[in-house]
Amino acid sequence: MSDTNTQNTINKIIVPISNPDSAEDLLRLACALVNSEEGRVIGLFILRGDLDDEAETIDQLEPLMEQLLAEGYTVKLQTHKSSSVARGILDAARDEGGDLIILGVQHSSPEQVVLGTIGENVIAAISCPVLIYRPSRTEQKAHRIVVPTDGSLPAKTASRIGIQLAAHYHIETEVVYVQPSYRSRWEGLGHIEQTLEDIPNTEHVKRTLITAQNPAQGLLARLNDDDLLVVGYSGRSDFERWLFGDFSRQMLMRSRCAVVLVSPSVQTNPLFHRARKGFNRFVLRLTPAEQEDIERQAFDMSAANLDYLVLIGIAAMLASLGLLANSVAVIIGAMLVAPFMQPCIAFAVGMATSQMALARRAVMSLLIGIPFAVLIAALTGLLAQGRPFTAEMLARGNPTLLDVMVAFASGVMGAYATARKDIPSALAGVAIAAALMPPLCTFGLGLTAGNLDLGLRAGLLFLTNIVCIAIAAWVVFFLLGLRPVLNKTVERVRYATLVAFALLVLLTMGSLVNLSANTNRSQQVVQWLATAFLPAQIHDVEVQEGIPVKVTVVVRSNTIVNETQVTAIEKMLAEKLSRPVHLEIVFQQTISAP
Questions:
Q1: What is the DSSP-derived secondary structure letter of residue 53?
Q2: How would you write 201-224 as a 3-class SS string?
Q3: Chain centroid to CA 47: how far?
């Protein structure tokens, strides 16, 4: 084992392995790169079924791990269960806080390199640097490391890694610059020195200039079968500019020697490195395959089919009966049945990806389901006429900003559960139904009972909740990577306008709920004061929100209101409002003629 990892910040390398035949090359490469003092290498095996089903493969990997441990390397074989291999690698990398992921590629033919669907999805969604290793076609042991450079940051990173590998294996390092014949020799040497600047242990590095019109062909002509080619890459999206650009792709396809592609952010400032690792632990990025799956699922969820209507009818009836009976258990049962999560999530996916056809389809499902639920609630209310309003109904008729926050959290939960297959979507469905079905049924019951004030307040709560759920889910999907593909300026302006309109609607609904809550609170205070001061008359009640709530009231009475009575009423208001209250009385004594 070498002690050449000075200033090495690669403390944890994760190596996804599934094939025992290729595992040794990948693990030994990781051992050569990891910090020799504090670092460790994790051989990651993804389980998609039971452990017993993969026991044979794991048994084949364990002797290799024991051999590396005996050689002095800190390695560990770790299993991670997941619904898909790509998602398991991404979750393990995030949970373990990996500094580097090493993936292997295969050359199925002399001119074809296969990364595989798993590798493509991991590279597209991974939050930490990735190193790609393609073994030699001749299976010869490397005797020289060649690093092509153009003076860029990726080339500098590749040079650093190449020098580190050369020191570990005690072989020669050669940094190569390819330039046309009309370029000055000093210009090429300047690019090489710029690349090696600030990299330790470069005194024994060989500097080589190659004259060629095509950089890839010039480099390939110089490579031997026993070389190890280390190339830096950069660029994101479009599958890393189709597997890291034309030059890197040609090296992978045509080179007979082993090839290593290095991310430019492998080595970085230690403080920034730790901050990035901490941030990445709380960031989830969806793979392209997962994004496509969510879009297909959203299309199915947006359909207003027979099952959707049957479930809404049953849920509306249960919720209405639970509200009338003041039974929390029955209301929870209605939440378990209600399917309102489906069109809400489908609408959010459509908006996040700018698929207006999907969003319209989801809105149509809501426009069919909402009146149907109100109708069922109204019919249930007609069968139970004469019953007093219960506490559960009155609670939905008194919307507050806390209800808005609950709805927003429900939307976040719904979107996250849809993206994460390991989380039961039924849990998110209950959260969303809790914010939608009871107030919607209270709206129908209030209209049937002739209490327009209660019904309209419950309807306002429902509309606010559904807007909050949709926008919250939209934001979550956008952050997870579901983004619109906007190729034209007109499309970008249209989408930005849509986002601004959605935020305006959200702020408007929140303001209406807050205004409704303040108005309702003022009405309650008036009722409580009127009862407390009987037989006196109260006028001009003013309620000022704040801490404490300031209540000013004019009291007209033929008997004097004393300080003890005022203190007791102030205490009563504070208990009912669950907030400190400052009560001021303007007393007007009335005198009646005999």
A1: G
A2: CCCCCEEEEEECCCHHHHHHHHCC
A3: 23
Which residues make Cβ contacts (< 8 Å) with residue 406, sequence separation at least 6? Answer: 434, 435, 465
Tell me how far apart the alpha carbons of residues 40 and 120 are, in angstroms, rounded to a whole number. Answer: 25
Residue 486 — pLDDT band, cuts 50, 70, 90?
low
pTM of the model: 0.67
DSSP 398: S
Tell whether the model's pLDDT for residue 373 goes beyond 90.
yes
Question: What's the count of helices (H) and strands (E) in the chain, helices before strands?
Answer: 20, 15
Give me the count of residues in the chain: 594
pLDDT, residue 377, reads: 92
Task: Write the secondary structure of 305-326 as one string of H (helix), E (strand) and C (coil).
Answer: CHHHHHHHHHHHHHHHHHHHCC
Q: What pLDDT score was predicted for residue 362?
A: 92
Band of the pLDDT at 461, cuts 50, 70, 90? Answer: confident
Return the SS3 of 576: helix
Residues 6+ apart with CB under 8 A from 541: 522, 525, 526, 529, 551, 552, 553, 554
In the DSSP assignment, the letter for residue 269 is: -
Write down the H helix ranges in 237-269. Answer: 238-254
Residue 355 and residue 16: Cα distance in Å, rounded?
35
pLDDT-based confidence at residue 594 (cuts at 50, 70, 90): low
Q: In what order do the strands lie in the sheet with 206-211?
A: 75-81, 40-47, 12-16, 100-104, 130-134, 258-262, 227-232, 144-148, 172-179, 206-211
- The arithmetic mean of pLDDT across residues 174-187, rounded, is 85
Rounded Cα–Cα distance for residues 489 and 270 (Å): 40
Distances, alpha carbon 60 to alpha carbons 56, 57, 545, in Å: 6, 5, 70
Structure tokens at 588: 């007007």
Q: Which of 403, 418, 410, 426 is nearest to 472 (CA)?
A: 410
What are 450's two structure tokens?
Answer: 């002739």
Q: Which helix (H) or strand (E) holds 582?
A: strand 581-589
Residue carrying structure tokens 């079968």: 225
Q: How confident is the model at residue 265 (pLDDT cuts 50, 70, 90)?
A: low
Max avg pLDDT among 52-56, 432-436, 477-481:
477-481
